[in-house]
Design brief:
Blueprint: H1 3-12, H2 18-26, E1 47-50, E2 53-55, H3 58-67, E3 75-79, H4 85-94, E4 98-103, H5 106-117, E5 124-128, E6 139-144, E7 159-169, E8 174-181, E9 185-193
Parallel strand pairs: 3-4, 3-6, 4-5, 6-7
Antiparallel strand pairs: 1-2, 7-8, 8-9
Bound molecules: S-adenosyl-L-homocysteine.
S-adenosyl-L-homocysteine binds near residues 83, 102, 103 and 145.
């Protein structure tokens, strides 16, 4: 499949947000996959990046980007940098806002940094650490790209007013849960997905 065909497929599957589709066209998924998968870079499924990690399925990435309701200027935390692909898509949409992304596997931090360089984006900070405890600052949006067994309630305090936390929760398969911080925390269940588990 070509990148244009992937965009068509994502539209067929229900992705309508033009900013998300434009970012996927611009931030080439080929830059983030292992060389041996180059021919599959635009196919709509996850690909291994080694170390028990994957670059997520494009549909899942697009679905999550839509659910995050990203706006220019947003300050975003991603837990699970992996290849850096999702972080770059977020950075492209929110620039001049900033993306902090954390990764626990040393080798993947290096892999992601190299991949990110190819995009020319400057508004991404990759941190080598367990991101599940937050970073001690507040964000407009927080997104986990690895599964939590329980709702990471400790991160609610790191959300700004009207902030959104998106997290796949569950042991073997996950429910994609979206939390919005208004006067209270509101929760929405966006359906079933499968992610690699968070590590500590
Ligand atoms: N967003 C990635 C896909 C990530 S796969 C992309 O676009 O390619 C999930 C990643 O979360 C893996 O790389 C895994 O190593 C990482 N991870 C697991 N537990 C973590 C933790 N506690 N803190 C930060 N990263 C973690």
């Amino acid at each position: 499949m070509s990148l244009k065909e992937l965009i068509k497929e994502l539209k067929l599957k229900g992705i309508i947000d033009e900013r998300v589709l434009r970012a996927i066209l611009k931030i080439d998924r080929k830059w983030f996959v292992l060389d041996k998968y180059e021919n599959e870079a635009y196919d709509d499924y996850p690909l291994s990046i080694g170390f028990n990690a994957t670059i997520s399925q494009p549909f899942t990435v697009a679905f999550m980007l839509e659910a995050l309701e990203l706006k220019k200027g947003d300050k975003v935390l991603e837990i699970g940098t992996g290849s850096g692909y999702n972080a770059c898509l977020i950075a492209e949409i929110v620039k001049p806002g900033i993306v902090y992304t954390t990764e626990i596997v040393h080798e993947l931090v290096g892999f992601a940094k190299e991949n990110i360089k190819k995009t020319g984006l400057k508004n991404i900070k990759v941190l080598e650490k367990d991101g599940s405890e937050g970073l001690g600052m507040k964000f407009d949006k927080i997104v986990f790209t690895a599964a939590c067994e329980e709702i990471p309630k400790n991160l609610f305090k790191n959300l700004k007013k009207n902030g959104i936390l998106l997290v796949p929760v569950g042991r073997f398969s996950q429910r994609m849960l979206k939390f919005k911080k208004n006067k209270k925390i509101e929760m929405e269940d966006l359906g079933s997905f499968i992610f690699v588990p968070i590590r500590h």
